[in-house]
DNA sequence: TTTAACTTTCAAAATTTCATGAAAGTTTAT
DNA sequence: ATAAACTTTCATGAAATTTTGAAAGTTAAA
């Protein structure tokens, strides 16, 4: 396999993975493209390579910047903006974890905390089951939350070392 | 807040979380409903409670069964089928991890392994960047894979005890 | 074997999500 | 101040996904 073909496959695979995880396909593809590009790219180049419209490219790049996965670069003496992706996978993983935690885990923990407080007749099966499920899920969510927090603070090696201690 | 309202909120929240993670909203809602139901429910009851069609209920339940999150129950002397969800959050988490690993992580690792093998001119920046990103992501994916494998084998307590060691 | 209860399928409709591109906006150079 | 280079917005349409419900299929009792 040659590089251009491999590049295409990588972009396609990353796009598919993204869409399975609630990240839009194009966003994942633009990210993939920037990940394998040694130099920062312009909007034009991204549009060209991925065959997407200007509007789409612009919005997608903005999203990627909001996710903290891509940064703008200004080149001295040039009007155009260049975009590049952080290539450090550990940073990428942490950044994604951080965003999803903020956007998804935090809100659900808030709701679960509220629902944990609901009171009812402890002889009522419906109430008992509701309460048990909600508090159990709440506990799990909080464990996940703590683990993510640790991950966000951790150095890559330390984190995986800790994880792999579990194997011994 | 009273139980019925709380139940509704829980179903809504679980549905939203599901859709943010690539699981269809209805599927997550049916799962939520079964999680808070002390007894197994019929298709009719699920249709009624969530205001969904028979076809949708049927397909959704089949999916949940395929994910290993819901089981059928036959009641002696009855024609109808009843459905209930495993209420153990640890089992739920493991089951979801197991399915997603099989459906998503395994295929991407396969592709990354292939792409890691691509050869090229080590003086070519494009090749160098491609190669580094691909192999780095591959390593990360394999770490995640191993961690999931451990999690799947682990007993609940043992797993969380190990996680909490990380905090000390 | 017939019937009725119940389940499954699937083509069409509804909804949701995503991409487009022209127009509006912004910035910099002259 | 104007023009040119470049970026952003957003109404609209296209595509993908989800839902519906009626018809077909299945099963078990009579």
Order of helices and strands of chain A: HHEHHEEHHH
Assembly state here? homodimer
- Count of helix runs of chain A: 7
Largest interface: A-B, 59 and 59 residues
The value of Rg of chain A in angstroms is 21 Å
CATH superfamily of the largest domain in chain A: Winged helix-like DNA-binding domain superfamily/Winged helix DNA-binding domain
CATH class of the largest domain in chain A: Mainly Alpha
Q: Give the number of DSSP strands of chain A.
A: 3
Helix content of chain A: 55-70%
Gap from first CA to last CA of chain A? 39 Å
CATH-derived topology of the largest domain in chain A: Arc Repressor Mutant, subunit A
Total domain modules of chain A: 2
Q: Could you give a short account of the major beta sheet of chain A?
A: 3 strands, antiparallel
Task: Provide the CATH architecture of the largest domain in chain A.
Answer: Orthogonal Bundle
Structure report:
- Chains A, B: GO terms for molecular function: DNA binding; DNA-binding transcription factor activity.
- Chains A, B: This is HTH-type transcriptional regulator.
- Chains A, B: Belongs to the GbsR family.
- Chains A, B: Keywords: DNA-binding, Transcription, Transcription regulation.
- Chains A, B: InterPro entries: ArsR-like_HTH, HTH-GbsR_regulator, HTH_MarR-typ, MJ1563, WH-like_DNA-bd_sf, WH_DNA-bd_sf.
- By secondary structure, chain A is mostly helical.
- Chain A folds into two domains: 83 residues, Arc Repressor Mutant, subunit A (Orthogonal Bundle), CATH 1.10.10.10; 77 residues.
- Chain A is 70% helix and 7% strand.
- Chain A contains seven helices and three strands; from the N terminus they run ααβααββααα.
- In chain A, strands 1-3-2 form a three-stranded antiparallel β-sheet.
- In chain A, strand 2 and strand 3 form a beta hairpin.
- In chain A, helix 1 runs antiparallel to helix 2.
- The two termini of chain A are 39 Å apart.
- The mean pLDDT of chain A is 93.
- Chains A and B meet through helix 1, helix 5, helix 6 and helix 7 of A and helix 1, helix 5, helix 6 and helix 7 of B.
């Amino acid at each position: 396999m040659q590089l251009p073909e491999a590049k295409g496959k990588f972009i396609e695979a990353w796009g598919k993975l993204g869409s399975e995880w609630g990240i839009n396909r194009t966003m994942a593809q633009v990210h993939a493209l920037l990940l394998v590009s040694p130099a920062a790219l312009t909007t034009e180049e991204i549009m060209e390579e991925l065959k997407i419209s200007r509007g789409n490219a612009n919005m997608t790049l903005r999203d990627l910047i909001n996710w903290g996965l891509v940064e703008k670069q200004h080149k001295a003496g040039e009007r155009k903006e260049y975009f590049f992706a952080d290539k450090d996978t550990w940073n990428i993983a942490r950044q994604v974890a951080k965003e999803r935690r903020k956007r998804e885990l935090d809100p659900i923990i808030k709701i679960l905390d509220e629902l944990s407080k609901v009171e009812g007749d402890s002889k009522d099966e419906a109430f008992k089951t509701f309460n048990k499920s909600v508090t159990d899920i709440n506990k799990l969510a909080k464990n996940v939350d703590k683990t993510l927090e640790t991950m966000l603070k951790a150095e890559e090696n330390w984190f995986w070392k800790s994880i792999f201690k579990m194997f011994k």
